[in-house]
Amino acid sequence: MPPQARATMKLKRTLLLSFGLVALACSGQKLDGGSEGSILVRQALAPGKDAQTACDFQPVATWPSLSDGTLDIGVRGDYSARLLVEAKDGAAMRIEKAHVRLLDGDSDGPVITEGDVDANGFVDAGGLAVVTVRAIGFDTSASLEASLPTRTTVRRVVAEISVAASPGTSDNAVTAPVFRLPVNVCNGCLVSFSDANDPAVLPQPNCGMPLGQSLRMPCVAGQDEPVPCQACTGRAACDPAHP
């Protein structure tokens, strides 16, 4: 092919690529798969501080945020993150699903599992909504159990979550930029034996004292908050003899 013809073809390819990038930018889509300003996850939500409404998670920017989650597989088999999702571009959004990639150790660690999970909700234009996403499934937590022989052993993973949504009047799906939530996985670390030992019962120590009626239970037993041993009797991790 003559040099002039090759130069002409190269120019055409460059122009086509440039036009494609401009069109993509104008459509509001980011090259990394996220949406440019349409929808985003602001934060993961922690249980509230008011004992009466601690578990009534509200879509408000001032709700306590969660920097690290904790899953105690000795008590619970999955971990569901409560995410504060915001619609930013003037259109209401219908949450349809989420894509979760679970990494071992940190954001540079190997992938443990990856896939789509259910996520439902509706965010008014310019508003906020609480969306629950299962970040760690039952099969995954079961596969981690062998690496957690004692209650003091902790395995850190990172859940990379991308929420997918469509404008309320359209089926044109957009995805939020990836939100990363570290989760510390353990086997018995959230079980509390405080004020649980009954001196009249053998062996010692034990979990023989009745559960106090005034004690606030965790929002989700085995997730993020201590759980009294009396609330999970029968599980190995809730036995004081568990290593």
Q: What features would you describe in this structure?
A:
The chain has 243 residues and is mostly beta strands. The chain has a domain at 32-185: Immunoglobulin-like, CATH 2.60.40. 13% of the residues lie in helices and 33% in strands. It contains 2 helices and 11 strands. Strands 2, 4, 5, 7, 8 and 9 form a 6-stranded mixed sheet that branches. Strands 1-3-6 form a 3-stranded antiparallel sheet. Strands 10-11 form a two-stranded parallel sheet. The radius of gyration is 24 Å and the shape is globular.
Secondary structure elements and their pairing?
Layout: H1 3-26, E1 39-44, E2 69-72, E3 79-87, E4 93-104, E5 111-123, E6 128-136, H2 138-144, E7 154-167, E8 174-175, E9 179-186, E10 191-192, E11 227-228
Parallel strand pairs: 2-9, 10-11
Antiparallel strand pairs: 1-3, 3-6, 4-5, 4-7, 7-8, 7-9
What keywords describe this structure?
11 strands; 2 helices; Immunoglobulin-like; single chain; globular; 243 residues; 3-stranded antiparallel β-sheet
Spell the H/E element sequence: HEEEEEEHEEEEE
Using DSSP, what is the number of strands? Answer: 11
Number of helices: 2
- pLDDT < 50 stretches: 5-36
Percent of residues in beta strands: 25-35%
Describe the biggest sheet?
Answer: 6 strands, mixed
CATH level-1 class of one domain = Mainly Beta
CATH architecture heading of one domain: Sandwich
End-to-end Cα distance: 75 Å
Structural class: mainly beta
Q: What value does the Rg take, in angstroms? A: 24 Å
Can you give the helix content as a percent range? Answer: 10-25%
CATH topology of one domain: Immunoglobulin-like
- Identify the overall geometry: globular
The average pLDDT score comes to 84
